[in-house]
Amino acid sequence: MTRRRLAWLAALALLLTAGALGWAFAQAGLYGVTILLHRGGSYWVDVTRDDARLSPAMRLALRDPVPAARADPPAWRRLAEGFEVAEMPVLADGGEVDRLLLARIDPAHFRLIARGAPAGNREVQDWMRHLGAALVVNGSFYDRYGQPDTPMVSEGMRLGPERYEARHGAVIADADGVRIIDLHGGDWRAALAGARDGVVSWPLLLAPDGSTRAAGDPRWLANRSFLGQDRDGRIIIGTTADAFFSLRRFADFLRDAPLDLAIALNLDGGPVACQAIDLAGYTRDACGLWETQTVGDRIRLLRWPLWWKRFGLPVVLAVVPR
Prior knowledge:
322 residues; 2 domains; single chain
């Protein structure tokens, strides 16, 4: 009887697993199967403003009013010709509340490439090994099937939606180098034409005229990644260690930060806000843990059952030597 019972339980478990995988595939294709197997899926839970499940930085950011944030000039460290790194503490309420992990790249010495893996089966270190990159950062947004949700070019091939209204920005890499452009009043198809690699994203955190197009509920907090260009033409890549910032406050912070930014474009945020570096003996390996959203008066926190597992990155930007 014991053997029969064990065999029956094993068959039931197999049937339930097959059913769950079939449901995941029907909902989101291979990407759905990957996230179910890799981290058990994800879900939202209601939290309060002072909920212990939030990070201290998030609880501080949910105060009214939110303490103003500032930063001291970062101390840049040169790893190679045209590649520097720094960490910039975010200071508020008398102490450090977050930290910005930064890299500064000279396009004369390093290329920027855009790549995708719709199955979601590569996390940031998988991408580092696959591309042999000096740096990998998460890219723009993707849909439930892991496909780019904004127009993208990878190795000269157009990916993502054919019909898309772009009013924010894009990063373009071609024979002339790398540049971030404001798409307001422009045509993203013309912007991506001739590009070897590139991606459209939103919001434009800092426009060339000093304005921002970031909005949204101030209670929407997340780990953040951005791509900027300073007034000397260098590309600045940054990822936050915590989730102190809403999009609008992040835009205001970058405008005033001592980075000499001429333009800055938001990348996807939350647990996919990842950045890794491996160059000249220096390593960095950081991925987000936090994201909230709101439904009316409710604040919801993103969770996943296998909390120690990282999210796969369906869209990435990578820095490789020329």
